[in-house]
Task: inverse folding
């Protein structure tokens, strides 16, 4: 039998490591012949745009490079399958591709939408009596997938955020005048990544002094009060804030009140907005910093724990399919914090698809403006370890596939 | 005799390495007793706020940590001395501190303003017949200091920019739809740091496809034309642009036309502005990314060449003072590109203070929208090598001095 693997959703540092896991485990199996890579997620299956990964990943060095290359080497997509009961045109295309290519197992590395695809596709193929195993390999820097202890890609993002926040603390502390620095971190509905900056409190840092997550109500009035309180204690106040915060006083004005010279709405983020609030209401030196896509692609400071686990969970997906399971998503179960230990299990995709996992209440301080030390034991193991990054001309060497090969 | 050292101006990854250079070289010299650190640059001398560095830097591990800690461990300032012919009140305070602390040499690690301080202070002390050696140790991520081949701190900033840009390229290339990504890089008048992203062209990258520096005229019309040209060739177009670009059509409208709900002017950067221009005029997927302070403080990916050289130029400053020179700034002279070799020399501070060095014409493409391969030999040696970063709890370990010790 042949197998196919695809990558989907927003980039992380660990999606290619999961691809490595699927690829290496499949190579070991004599029952598996071709290992197809689907270009641009499920779109590659729909359009029969597949590459033979054995012709692309050619050496141990290629594997090492793939592990340290961020984003998705096979491209990605944002594609949500319709219900097959409504319209199965696309499902037929997918099934045709599976048949034509003699694909007996399909591995989908992705976030919530991709797990929805795993669920629907496994239901559809069961219903038409097709023997194919559909397995989901999770990934997301948001860490908001249910059931799994954490998501591949999150640890590296958290390591980047903490390391960068620590450097921003050094940078912001040099002058004698008081200042406020607001760091905007990804996370629309769940504050995991923002909250993970709490790990700095175990080192020498008192910062971030304030941490705001979208799980809590946020009011400008309380925010200004919090900032003034911290300014009384610290010369350089550092604030970590999730991009998904909703302001209770004037719900969406920070994304709609401003129009540029083209009459275009100014989609400034919450960080920039609060920078202007602080400047206007407190009047001190203030700066906002958006960590932007660097949070999800800074492989040069990825977490070795994350990369290793992401490879392992990819490999476990292959073993799960070979055991005859389908419609499953692979998950981590934490056995212990310190020493850190996880096992890998599989659960029905319908327990993960279309759900979101939020920060537990005991991770959030009573005043809703910081993260508790209880969260540190959860986050800390996930950011441990560094890869020995292969460098070329002074820069990390990346593995890429020529655009012409990907069509 | 005692000596004093101070750090000034905007943070870089290499200012503490230069402090290490001054400290270690001074320790070797039996003629030097106390090694004072001045808190917050020249302000520490003015206010007699000094610390004894022998009580603070206590071990080889401390030295290793200092070398990998960004920003200024002694704090910084933005203080420009008035002409002493007009008013020498502050000069008298400085001289009193030098006398009271028996300081025979003062080393000022900083940028252009600090070199102006070196110039004025050496002239003043000569004029009053005081025997003190005033030596400048340059630093700036802008690389715009004259005479010296390059400035300490620049190589690490350039390495961060190139490594991050490479990751942004991976991140932006995943979807099948066309897109434009605009990366805004520091540099108000000189485009060195933005231009350094050209090193990616020696690796596998065609990006950045467009590079704009403040040395050239910039028009929105040409920019849109350039972007459309590149979109015909590449799916994901990457633009590097200096923050200091001035738009010829509507000189300052991008910083003044927009007012937020507080009636505050929206100081969006050029990147955000051009993002809105592209969205409005071309209509494709577009994102802007501001590399912000991470450019000057991301020590976790610093250049070993930069850190080593920054330490060496600090040490050379001490030897220069011991030879009896004053009013000098230490500079690099490049002997060869490949194999890379530099020597360290000293020049009169008045040849450096208050001048700016711009990109040479042959580094800029005829169409003024890219950087030539001739520039690569200049930039490439500066980003080579990595420190073996000491980690703690999964993060780089920083060296800091307690706020209470710094007063």
Result:
């Amino acid at each position: 039998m042949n197998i196919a693997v695809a990558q989907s959703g927003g980039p992380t540092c660990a999606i290619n490591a999961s691809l490595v896991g699927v690829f290496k485990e499949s190579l070991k199996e004599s029952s598996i012949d071709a290992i197809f890579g689907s270009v641009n997620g499920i779109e590659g299956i729909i359009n029969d745009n597949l590459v033979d990964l054995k012709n692309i990943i050619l050496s141990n060095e290629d594997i090492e490079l793939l592990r340290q290359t961020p984003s998705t080497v096979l491209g990605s997509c944002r594609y949500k399958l319709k219900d097959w009961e409504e319209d199965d045109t696309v499902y037929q295309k997918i099934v045709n591709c599976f048949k034509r290519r003699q694909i007996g197992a399909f591995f989908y590395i992705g976030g919530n939408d991709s797990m929805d695809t795993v669920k629907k596709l496994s239901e559809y193929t069961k219903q038409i009596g097709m023997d194919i195993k559909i397995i989901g390999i999770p990934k997301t820097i948001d860490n908001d997938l249910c059931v799994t202890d954490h998501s591949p890609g999150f640890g590296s993002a958290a390591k980047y955020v903490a390391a960068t926040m620590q450097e921003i603390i050094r940078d912001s502390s040099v002058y004698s005048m008081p200042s406020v620095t607001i760091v905007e971190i990804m996370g629309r509905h769940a504050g995991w990544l923002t909250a993970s900056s709490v790990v700095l409190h175990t080192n020498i840092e008192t910062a971030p002094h304030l941490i705001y997550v979208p799980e809590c109500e946020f009011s400008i009035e309380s925010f200004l009060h919090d900032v003034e309180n911290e300014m009384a204690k610290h010369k350089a106040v550092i604030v970590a804030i999730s991009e998904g915060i909703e302001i209770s006083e004037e719900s969406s004005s920070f994304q709609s009140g401003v129009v540029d010279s083209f009459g275009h709405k100014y989609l400034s983020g919450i960080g920039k907005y609060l920078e202007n609030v602080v400047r206007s209401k407190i009047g001190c030196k203030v700066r906002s910093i958006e960590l932007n896509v660097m949070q999800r692609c800074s492989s040069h400071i990825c977490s070795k724990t994350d990369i290793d686990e992401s490879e392992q969970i990819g490999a476990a997906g292959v073993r799960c399919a070979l055991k005859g399971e389908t419609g499953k998503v692979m998950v981590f179960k934490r056995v212990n914090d310190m020493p850190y230990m996880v096992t890998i299990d599989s659960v029905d995709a319908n327990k993960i698809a279309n759900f979101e996992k939020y920060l537990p209440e005991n991770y959030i301080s009573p005043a809703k403006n910081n993260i508790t030390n209880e969260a540190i034991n959860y986050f800390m193991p996930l950011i441990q370890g560094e890869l020995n990054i292969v460098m070329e001309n002074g820069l990390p060497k990346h593995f890429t596939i020529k655009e012409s090969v990907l069509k």
Summary: DSSP finds twelve helices and 13 strands in chain A. The first strand of chain A starts at residue 2 and ends at 7. Confidence is low (pLDDT under 50) at residues 254-267 of chain A. The domain at 2-140+302-354+388-396 of chain A is CATH 3.40.50.450 (Rossmann fold).
